[in-house]
Amino acid sequence: MKQANRGNLPALIFLFVLLLLWQLGAMEVNAAYILPTPIQILQRLWELRLPLFTVHLPATMLVTGVGLLISLALGLGLAVVMDWSPLLQKCLYPVVVASQTIPTTAIAPLFVLWFGYGIWSKVLVTVLITFFPITITVYDGLRAAKTEMAELLLTYGATKRDIFWKIKVPCALPYFFSAIKMAVPMSVIGAAIGEWLGAQSGLGYFSRRMMTQLDGAGVFAPIVLLSAAAMLAVAVVGLIERKAVKWRGES
Asked: What is the CATH number that goes with domain 38-244?
């Protein structure tokens, strides 16, 4: 525990220095509607705690959770299919890559027109952003399985299914958790973008509303809350990873 705390000490010092520079710079500018100080943001976050924590945070987390679950199912499915069939890999891989060339801010308003201001327009934006890293990272993990081990199992009469579950899945597991840790912040960003462009609730919607009122601290308050939620989710995924992938880092 003490060693872990010492390992986090440089990051905490660096964060403190950044916040201090931000505080001094914002005080020098002296225009809270443009650049509020960290203290002003925390004060505004406390003042707005009721609507933020009871209405807008749950709305954003619902969009994030649903979008992430769909991205997991889609990404894992595509990765397994591409690994199973070289022909399907040649067909699907370019389409997966091409999907990331679509500007999110351009297509998100179309999702709002098609599906309205409900949850699904935001969920689709989240899925569009997050399924790609899951697909590519897990696919790379499946392909990273050693050919020699697969050939050895084949000599003992193992089936393709045996090789998949006994070699490829354990090999891809660290890649899977890395993909999740990338996808969680991206899903939060996707939900916020969807809410910013068209929604009736959510942290992205609330931040946009505060911007129309020239409330700089009010704009930053939901962003800080969003970042804290994403970091907490990534930390939880990291804890699960340490329990599930105990061999990671071993030679």
From this structure: 1.10.3720.10
